[in-house]
Amino acid sequence: GENVEQHPSTLSVQEGDSAVIKCTYSDSASNYFPWYKQELGKGPQLIIDIRSNVGEKKDQRIAVTLNKTAKHFSLHITETQPEDSAVYFCAAVDSSYKLIFGSGTRLLVRP
Amino acid sequence: DGGITQSPKYLFRKEGQNVTLSCEQNLNHDAMYWYRQDPGQGLRLIYYSQIVNDFQKGDIAEGYSVSREKKESFPLTVTSAQKNPTAFYLCASSNQGLTGNTIYFGEGSWLTVV
Fold first, then answer.
1. Which of A72, B11, B86, B99 is the most exposed place for a label (fewest CB within 10 A)?
2. Residues of A in contact with B107 (CB under 8 A)
3. What radius of gyration do chain B's Cα atoms show?
4. Which of A42, A96, A101 sits opposite B43 (nearest CB)?
């Protein structure tokens, strides 16, 4: 079945710098890759997603890239702000159409 | 407001007791899901339902049960057979089942065994 690996597990950046989180997946049939942001004690919120028919998608300071050949996708946050501090999860849909999550990245933006 | 409502937010259970977590959505979504999250960990799928009166086991269904009698409701029962139930439980829904459409989450329920 699908396996999603996420790196790094923790990431600390200075306010204003960029942050990059990377994920790899194993099922070449996967075609949908969402990213979620989870604040402490709350449910995950979808921040951006990408489907396999595109290579990149942007929404203001957030972008996601997808390399189907290498089976990896990445989240890029530019001009980071303290409110970006949270846990970020990547996910991929497996061959039985279930959403499989990565293990999460704890992002800390230092003021 | 449209969304997914989970209740209660915090629940304490004595060993040997069954407890039921409520999940209601007014998004008119067909599919609903239950995930479990342990501290510092990712999300694991417990059960999912693509349509009323039908549901399937996820990766960690043992010790849990669900029902889907109404489109808007998908309650989860944590039974006494679940040996380590203390966790954060998340309900979610999507509008066209599991075929890659966006999944939205509720705010979660904390369950602690005392």
1. B99
2. 42-43
3. 13
4. A101
Amino acid B25: pLDDT: 97
Backbone φ, ψ for residue A49 (5° rounding): -145, 165
Cβ of residue A33 closer than 8 Å to a chain B Cβ: no
> What proportions of chain A, in percent to the nearest 5, are helix, strand and coil?
5, 55, 40
A99 touches chain B (CB under 8 A): yes
CB atoms within 10 A of CB B78: 25
DSSP designation for A26: S
Query: What is the rounded average pLDDT of the residues A46-64?
Result: 92
- Whether the pLDDT of residue A1 is over 80: the answer is no
Which residues 6+ apart lie within 8 Å of B14 measured at CB?
Answer: B113, B114
Q: Mind listing the pLDDT tens digit for each residue in B21-79?
A: 999 999 999 889 999 999 888 899 999 998 999 999 999 999 999 999 999 999 999 99
Chain pair A-B, CB pairs under 8 angstroms: 52
Nearest chain A residue (CA) to B43: A101
Collapsed DSSP state (helix, strand, coil) of residue A107: strand
- Across A29-43, average pLDDT: 92
User: What DSSP designation does A9 have?
Assistant: S
SS3 A102: coil
